[in-house]
Amino acid sequence: MDKKILSTAGFFGMTAIILGAFGAHALKKTLTIDQLATFETGVKYQMYHALFLLFLGLNTQLSNKIKKTILTLTILGVILFSGSIYLLATDSLNSFNFKVIGFVTPIGGLLLIIAWSSLMLHFLKKKS
Q1: Which of 10, 40, 108, 121 is the most buried (most CB within 10 A)?
Q2: How many angstroms separate the CA atoms of 79 and 41, rounded?
Q3: φ, ψ dihedrals at 26, nearest 5°
């Protein structure tokens, strides 16, 4: 389980850096300042959750069951939250109107909140 979590953390971290550089260099010429800021929000949240998964994978106090739950919630949350933000920020670059999928952004955010809440509740319930 830890190998899967750490691999996912590495993948999310690596792609966040790639997308951040892509936004800062290639998209800088084609997007507005507001669109770039929106794109950067997606990158930031993806990186935050890469670090979150790194913590999760290295933590020895959590069972594999809770780790699997948090991993699943985080993967889905990042894909829906950051992924939809990337598509919405670059909407002007293609012919498809990604605003129709804008409703998934808060769903992704909610999944990320539930992942963090699961971690918090686990530690609150844990006996000293």
Answers
A1: 108
A2: 13
A3: -75, -45
